[in-house]
Each structure stands twice: as structure tokens, then as C-alpha cells.
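The protein record quoted in full:
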Amino acid sequence: MQTCTPLLLAGLLLAFSCAGAQADEADWQARLARAEAMKSAADASQKAADEEFARRNLACQEKFLVNSCVNEAREQHIAVTRASRQQRVEASTIEREVRREQSAARAASLAEEERQRAASLPERERAVAAEREQAERDRQQALADKQEKAEARALKRAQQAEAHQRKVAEHEARVAERKARAERRAAGE
């Protein structure tokens, strides 16, 4: 029997959940379209019933038993209105169910993302810690290089100052020797 790695299982679950989400999305869209069609049909039915009631009410005014005719037209209008309201209620129920399912799917998706984020947290923390350590090593190396260069410059300056002092001493010695020679010549003349 072959075992699956956690990464492989996570990938398979993600693939299946994506396929399921696409199927759910198509189902949701179809149900929402059906609910919208039901609402449109209910609205059209209500509008037709209102127009029919107005037409029949007007026609009833020409009959002998006006109240009986109007009551009959009103009862038919009420029956159609109730049916169209029931159809709108069913459409609203479908929409609420779809929205509830979409909300549950979003919550499940967010929970899965949070779980994956939490699972990858130790790895991300190690990566961040490694980056920080490398940055600190780089900083320490830069400081060491800077210190080394400063020491080299200080040594060079000290050597230059020593060489300068030697030259000055040699120059002063030559000047003193020339002076002494000049004085001896002047004294010996």
C-alpha cells in the first residue's frame, strides 16, 4: 500500500474543493436565475391580474348585479395575488438558501486558508529568522570590513606621519649641518 505525503493530500483536497466550488457556483447561479425568473413571472402575473381586475371592475359597472360582479373579480384578483406572492416567497427562499450556502462556502474557504497559513507559519518563521540572521551576519561583516579599512587607513596615516617626521628630521639635520659648515667657513676665513 502506498502512502500519500501531506503535501500531496493537501493538493488533492485543493483540486477537489476547486472542482466542487465550480460545480457549486454553477448550481448557485442556476438557482439564482430560476429565482429571478420566478420573481419576474410573479410580477408579470400580478401586473396582468391588476389589469384584469381593473378591466373587469370597469365592465362590472355596466351589469345589473354590480357588487356581485366586483366581488367575483376581487376574489379572482386576490387568488392571483396570493399565488404570485407565494411564488415571490419561494424565490426569496431560494435566494436566501443560495446566499447561506455561499456564505458557508466562503467561511469554509477562509477556515481552510487560515489552517494552511497556520500550518505554514513555523516554516515562514524559520525563513524570516534565517533572513534576519543573514542580514545580521551581513551587517556584522560590513562593520568588520569598515573597521578593517579604518585601521588600514589609520596605519597608513601613521606610516605617512612617521615618514614625514623622518623627512623633516633629515631636512633639519641637513640644514643644521649646512649652517655648521657655513659657520666653520665663516670662522675659518
